[in-house]
Amino acid sequence: MLIPTVLTAISLAINLSAAAELPLFRDFPSLGKAISRVEILHGPTPLGPMPMLEARLYSEVGKPAPARPTLMVKRDDISESPLGGNKARKLEFLLADIFGKGARGVVTSGMYGSNHALATAVAAHEYGLKATLILGPQPVTENVRKKLLAFHALGAKLHYHSNRIGMGLDMLWAYLADKIMPGRHPYYIPPGGSNRLGDVGYVNAFLELRDQLGVDGLPDTVVVPVGTMGTSAGLLVGTCLAGVWERVKIAGVNVADPLLTNDGATRSEARRLYNFIRQSADAADRARMPSCNFKSRKAFEFIEQYYAPGYGAAYPNVFSGMELLKQTEGLIVDSTYSAKAFLYFLDQSRHAIASGRALPHMLFWLTYNAYDFDQVINKHHWTNAAEKWRDLPKPFWRLFVEGRPRAQ
Ligand SMILES: Cc1ncc(COP(=O)(O)O)c(C=O)c1O
Fold this sequence. Notes:
Elements: H1 2-17, H2 23-27, H3 29-34, E1 47-49, H4 51-59, E2 72-75, H5 86-101, E3 105-111, H6 115-127, E4 130-136, H7 142-153, E5 157-160, H8 164-180, E6 187-188, H9 196-217, E7 221-226, H10 230-241, E8 249-254, H11 263-280, H12 283-287, E9 300-303, H13 316-329, H14 338-354, E10 362-366, H15 374-379, H16 398-401
Parallel strand pairs: 2-10, 3-4, 3-6, 4-5, 7-8, 7-10, 8-9
Antiparallel strand pairs: 1-2
Helix pairs in contact: 4-13, 5-6, 5-9, 9-10, 9-11, 10-11, 13-14
The structure holds pyridoxal-5'-phosphate.
């Protein structure tokens, strides 16, 4: 046990020292001293045009696509390890805080098929932490079932909830236990990994995009799904710190309950994040940070109408958008988050072409981790390979047998 611990400590030290390479820390060096990071992503995620998609959209109205593509995709879906997608960017900063506080375990929550819960379970598995996942109800699909099996295969302890009240109380207890005795109880990560530390990952992500494209090459609009709001808030603060406020608009497509996820709450999250970053910087860096009015409609648009019929459920046009993206660009998205944002992206593009205008200079930020978790599930030693779910805590069993023509 001692050797792996020493190795983890050495690799953490190496990773923490590499933090100065981040665009955010290069632009504002004092932040690199104030905010720690565990390096999960080794460099920028790829970025590319979407020529096949453009050709298809123009062909739908019988026109040839212009020679220079304008639609782009930022590929946060690509990663060599199971720890990818938008959660990896947040976990880099959350993990550093976990290690800083000396916690041995981590607790977080999400719906049964939560991407964030999965990313946390992967991170805990990779970094030797005990993960507890507080899970609540959402429509059960094969994808959700696969994630539940992956949680178990990764060694996470699962708490089942059939309603949001029980789930909320469990989360409250986990939060209070961590606050009252930090380091002694599992470190509490809020849903989606969205807090000011996690969100720093997406402030940096926008600066990474600026470095890749140069200020002049930046799109006019960045389209991204909004769940717990950290991703869009981070990108919004990024546009501020990059000095392209109101020049690049963040278009956040809501996929979660509007009671908690809405325009005002996203702007407040961004404002709090911006203040945290300012407070973490020294006077010289602070003086170079632009000030931004987070009420601006030109800088941020919250798009509500793609949420219906609800979290984790989708109309057929979401699935046809997914299919189109797969057929044209070979990209995989999930129907809960990224496919709804992509549908907005598609609707905007089709609308521009149908009105005889050029396609907007728009970027789709692909936040879904496309790693195939069958690899993790198949490596695990299950008691009964045909009914793997029987190894999960009993309350979860109904999620595998209900709606199937087989008795429990
Ligand atoms: C694939 C995917 N995209 C986008 C989001 C939304 O990000 P945020 O919760 O930071 O708003 C999530 C959140 O879980 C996600 O899993």
